[in-house]
């Protein structure tokens, strides 16, 4: 069996950055899926933070239908949710807790046919991908005895990068508690305890007339990162930008003193990579994942790539090898338009029956 893993499609995103709604990249992906028996959509498949659910699904379903048609009646599509599409799984999480305390989530729980039927958005996706069969797994999925895959947004609870979500989750931890440390000491529920309230608020906001705020916030965040990371090319910083770069470390220090962290004021491109890998390694450690290979998404940073330090892609203490297929979002601020760059869209992690996973470029042209 051949399995292809892609993540972070963000279908329905504003500014048309979701490249699979463009005819060329979608055709390229469909061609590359020839011979694939199982397609894993590893989270942030649908962009649910930038507007109403109905609009996001209207944008996403034609793409998902094309992928289902490509795999055909013998194919399987596995859907794992992330942070931007967490609401797809939220109704199931709520329903399973009524009327009795639910059984532990563990590392993989697959929705039954009846459970899927009760969630309208998942039912719409199931119908769209026919004739392929839809499987919904949460919080991750074992693809082989030695390969486990999850979106990776749990890392936001332990990363040192001072992102909006990390700050919000740091504050939330004052209420719900920190994620237990130690190998195998934490459960999916421990991570979800801080994430679910934040995601519910963000989803509710997206359904309101002000729901497009997230798209503008993401664009501003990318521009701010260029300034703080010093990635301005030959351009000199403006007085306002100079003030921002001087104030930022002070603000991070204040947050650390307030016990929101630990956070780092270093947000350079190398540190983005290191912090993401360190945090997902911590998630693997705390959840007690024993697989030899762990595939994740979320950071949009593909790897390991030629030139990467391979030891960074190993989980300390377990030796598990980390793999990330990047994203299917056109982000020139991060990618620089270079198809060989780590943030350039169009990659996947491909898995056969016996060999280790491998990172492949499936699409090179994004127009």
From TrEMBL:
InterPro entries documented for this protein: Calcineurin-like_PHP (IPR004843), Metallo-depent_PP-like (IPR029052)
Family matches, as SUPFAM superfamilies: Metallo-dependent phosphatases (SSF56300)
Start and end residues of each Calcineurin-like phosphoesterase domain: 1-154
Molecular-function GO term, any one: hydrolase activity
Top-rank taxon, per record: Bacteria
Protein's name according to its UniProt entry: Calcineurin-like phosphoesterase domain-containing protein
């Amino acid at each position: 069996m051949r399995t292809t893993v892609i993540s972070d499609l963000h279908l329905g995103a504003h500014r048309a950055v979701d490249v699979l709604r463009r005819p060329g990249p979608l055709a390229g992906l469909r061609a590359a899926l020839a011979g694939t028996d199982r397609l894993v959509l590893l989270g942030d498949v649908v962009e649910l933070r930038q507007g109403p659910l109905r609009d996001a699904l209207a944008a996403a379903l034609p793409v998902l239908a094309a992928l289902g048609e490509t795999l055909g009646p013998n194919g399987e599509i596995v859907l794992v949710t992330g942070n931007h599409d967490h609401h797809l799984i939220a109704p199931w999480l709520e329903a399973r807790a009524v009327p009795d305390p639910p059984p532990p989530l563990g590392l993989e729980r697959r929705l039954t046919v009846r459970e899927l039927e009760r969630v309208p958005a998942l039912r719409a996706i199931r119908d769209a991908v026919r004739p392929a069969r839809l499987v919904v797994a949460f919080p991750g999925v074992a693809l082989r005895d030695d390969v486990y895959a999850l979106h990776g947004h749990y890392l936001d609870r332990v990363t040192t990068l001072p992102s909006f979500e990390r700050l919000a989750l740091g504050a939330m931890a004052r209420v719900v508690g920190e994620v237990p440390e130690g190998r195998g000491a934490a459960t999916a529920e421990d991570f979800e305890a801080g994430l679910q309230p934040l995601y519910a608020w963000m989803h509710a906001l997206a359904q309101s007339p002000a729901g497009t705020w997230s798209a503008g916030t993401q664009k501003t965040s990318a521009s701010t990162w260029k300034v703080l990371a010093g990635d301005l090319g030959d351009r000199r910083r403006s007085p306002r930008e100079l003030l921002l770069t001087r104030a930022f470390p002070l603000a991070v220090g204040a947050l650390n003193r307030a016990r929101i962290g630990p956070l780092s004021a270093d947000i350079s491109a190398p540190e983005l990579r290191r912090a993401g890998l360190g945090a997902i390694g911590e998630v693997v450690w705390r959840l007690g994942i024993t697989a030899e290979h762990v595939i994740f998404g979320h950071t949009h940073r593909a790897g390991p790539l030629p030139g990467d330090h391979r030891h960074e892609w190993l989980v300390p203490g377990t030796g598990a090898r980390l793999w990330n297929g990047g994203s299917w979002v056109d982000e020139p601020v991060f990618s620089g338009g270079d198809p060989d760059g780590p943030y350039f869209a169009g990659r996947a992690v491909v898995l056969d029956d016996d060999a280790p996973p491998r990172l492949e470029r499936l699409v090179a042209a994004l127009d």
